[in-house]
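Our preliminary data section would be incomplete without showing what the modeling component actually yields. Below, a chain of 209 amino acids is followed by its predicted structure, encoded as tokens that our downstream tools consume directly.
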Amino acid sequence: MAEDLIFYTNPMSRGRMVRWMLEEVGASYETRLLGYGGDMKSADYLAINPMGKVPAIVHGEAVVTEVAAICCYLADTFPEVALVPQRGRARAAYYRWMFFAAGPLEAAVVNRALGVAVSDEQTRMVGYGRYETVMDALEYAVSNGGDYIAGDRFSAADVYVGSHVLWGLRFGSIDKRPAFEAYAARLTERPAYARAGQIDDALLAAAKA
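Predicted structure:
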């Protein structure tokens, strides 16, 4: 695609997930770093993302926020890298687990980190039910039918789901199960993952200097 692609981020944010996705698709992009507070709440940026949060991308006239949406958009926009399964069970698994991570997984992990206790009566009200149920479903997702979320081929769903797994293992917000650790090991072997981490780590070091 010929349109300019602008990536709004902060190296201490979920923007690290999008950086990985951008490196996977091999797109040429411009990074614009925003600080927490003033930069993200400026009128100019609120016109892009009214939530006042990063990440966001602007691609020509298209504006996309929310990490899962950005991953799907980039995978669809750069089909030559084949990060979207084309049909059948793999395509279904791609969508299923991408949005499982965006919904039940993130909600369960965040609530647990915040100390939000869900009573037996409330489990029907919250989308994820119980944290333990979410962990069991995640284990099924990463160990059922192949090395990756949608089977034997890496896809954009692995960027998004995998980022949650990698982050959770690092900071203790998800269980350290063998299936999660094996999946994480496969992901960290990807050159795009390493490149993205090096870029953001360098930006973070420069900001602290």
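The helical segments are 15-25, 43-46, 67-77, 88-113, 131-143, 156-171, 178-188, 191-208. Residues 59 and 99 are 23 Å apart (CA to CA). Preliminary results of this kind motivate Aim 1 of the renewal.
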